[in-house]
Amino acid sequence: MKKILSIILAVAAMFSLVSCEKFLDTTLLTAKTSENFPTNEAELGQMVTSIYAYMLCESPEGASPQYIAQLAGDECLGGNVPGNNNIAHSLLQVKQNTNNFLNLWSRNYVMINRCNFVMEIINKINEQQNGQQNKTFSQAILDRYMGEAYFMRAYAYWSLASIFGGVPLRTDNEVVNKPRATIDETYKLIANDLKDAITLLPPVIYTYGSTETGHATKAAAEALQARVFLFYTGRYDKETLPNGTTKDQVIKDLENCINNSGHKLVSDQRNLWSYTNEVSESNESGYRYKYVTENGLKWEGNSCIETIFAEKHQMSQGFGNTWVGNELSFFFSPAQAKSDYMRHYPFAWGWGQGPVSPVFYQEWKEWSDKQTYLKPEEVKEDPRLSGSIWGYNAYDADDASKLMLERKFNDLEPDYQVAAIYFQQTGYFQKKCITVGAYDETIGNEDPNKNFICGFTRVQYPGVTTSNNPGHIAAVDVILIRFADVLLMHSELTGTADGINKVRARSGLAPIGGYTLQALKDERRYELAFEFVRWFDLLRWSGPELTEAGQALNKQTGFEMLNESKLTVQPHYDFASRLKVTQGYWPIPQTEIDIAGKDENGNDILQQNPGWGPEGLFTDWASIK
After folding, report:
1. Which of 50, 269, 355, 604 has its CA 20 to 30 Å from the CA of residue 310?
2. CB under 8 Å to 600, separation ≥6 — which residues?
3. What is the pTM of this model?
4. Can you say whether residue 463 is alpha, beta or left, with left for phi > 0 and alpha for psi between -120 and 50 degrees?
């Protein structure tokens, strides 16, 4: 039976070269089948690349595990308005119904199905080429692409399992409704896939300038295996992964990543984040981000030497494109207000979700003040604190001169006039995943605001698009795994301080005397702040009881903030009790439960997670208690 494959990249480019009528006639362009595709290594590469397309999403609110993690942990609040899901998610609830994460579910299963198809094709090619002298496909290419398929299937199942728990396991493209696998069965498949990926992927990395940037590597598989191991063994109180992979084997693979991959730390952690780009500082009109210029910062760029695995983005004219802009940064940026852009230059605007918790900031500041520094005459505070958080003076939505909250660190940071209808505006926003603009003097408008482009990459690469929507033109990586994380995971697995101290030294902090778990937890918390790992770290360090996570979340109360431009206090909410009910899992989409149907006993084939009946539905701000 022929199987249809949707080719996402090269074929999509061919579509743009033909008229609508021609498009309707070109059957073999639009419906590649297992009988006529792939015919060469380039076409096989297109198949593999099509898997990565579904890492991206146009609306992360219901499709991104990174979005969920950012709001569910203790670093950020919900923000935006109560009518949307962001405040609900920060309270471990959903708004209206349990279909919130339908796109997350379906997007990952599309990736899984594409991985299965690639594996099937490569197995057929290997069978056909067995014993042949002149082979169309080199074995090195087949092994590499098979390794990428194993990695991406593991990544997709990990994305599902970390959010939902056990999920239906599909290792072929047979159309049949399957029940949820157990936690152990799910992680056994993930672990086996990562083991195969590590074996098959070549020891190369793809940094900026390579045509393969964004593709999985042996180093990425070794790093993800360590992350999965730490999560599974901590969360479920286990000693090994379900396939038998031991801690010693994980350490061995991770040390290969550290010693042989070619990845390393960049000189200044702040240079990983796009607010340090040179384009925003290059205009002749004098618009500058003083924090960058005064600290001599310079962006390392996408696919830098520290990045091990990332989502890749590009500029687009609008939605519906295969590669879309960095929508996460759009959601996690301050809402557009009446203030002119020049007042909060270079930061652009977004949906106002994920404002930083004042409790998180205060705990970091107190920790920073207790640290010893390598050059105390030069460095007196953890530079990652101001490098990760934008502390601003918040001005009234209707009166740009009326100061409402004073949270500015120093004169190097811009101010911000808050949005009139938005909630939980704390005076703090994170800077690692935020929309960053640039001043474009070639526009030549007398109003400086109309010369402001909401994504600096549009100024950097003129002519690609005319859009000024930050979500369309933020061509900036979402870093998912980087080398500092690998060093910290190695310290945690080995109980040694070497990795911790290398990370600390990079930011000017003196080494710790000896390894302790608390020192490791602190270093991960602040080095990896706002990088979508804190929620998962809280869950795994808490184990099955979830006590530690509940205590951390329950601290998020009692601080001043602005709701609808009015000063208010964050109410108390019993996160710990809610976490106990849900066990840290999110709702299986009801649509998927309905489609799966009933078993012979009349029970749902797909069983819903606990805590997602009426008690899991957020109603309004007044209901928080």
Report:
1. 355
2. none
3. 0.93
4. left
